[in-house]
Amino acid sequence: FWLRETSQFAACRNLVQSSPPSVFVLVLGRDLERELALLEQVHACVPTTAAIVVGEADHPALVGLAWELGAAFVLFPPTSVEIITELVGGLLPGSPP
Predict the structure, then answer these.
(1) Which residues contact 87 (CB under 8 A, 6 or more apart)?
(2) Could you tell me which residues come within 8 angstroms of residue 38 by beta carbon, excluding any fewer than 6 positions away?
(3) Is the N or the C terminus of the chain less surrounded, counting Cβ atoms within 10 Å?
């Protein structure tokens, strides 16, 4: 996998559009409003890109909101973050199982 890190919508859109298929991994931090807006924008502009949202603490309301905003998978504790590699592999066509 190629991993690129950015927090800007234009950069995210360009990355997922220029190298399909793509998986968008969003780690929620301190600016939930901006981060969730980014999830919503990426999903609206590139709906074929699967999104995985990762949170640091169990928060049922954020889990539901992430699903509503277009996440394909939402990982909050107690789910292990190590599962991301398997999820990304499963979401990208042609990846080994």
Answers:
(1) 23, 52, 73
(2) 7, 9, 12, 26
(3) C
Q: Quickly list H helices, the chain.
A: 9-18, 32-45, 60-68, 83-91
Q: How far is CA 37 from CA 46, 66, 94, in A?
A: 14, 10, 30
User: 18 Cβ partners below 8 Å, 6+ apart?
Assistant: none
Are the CB atoms for 51 and 42 separated by under 8 Å? yes
With 0-12 CB in 10 A as exposed, 13-18 as middle and 19+ as buried, what is 66? buried
pTM beyond cutoff 0.70: yes
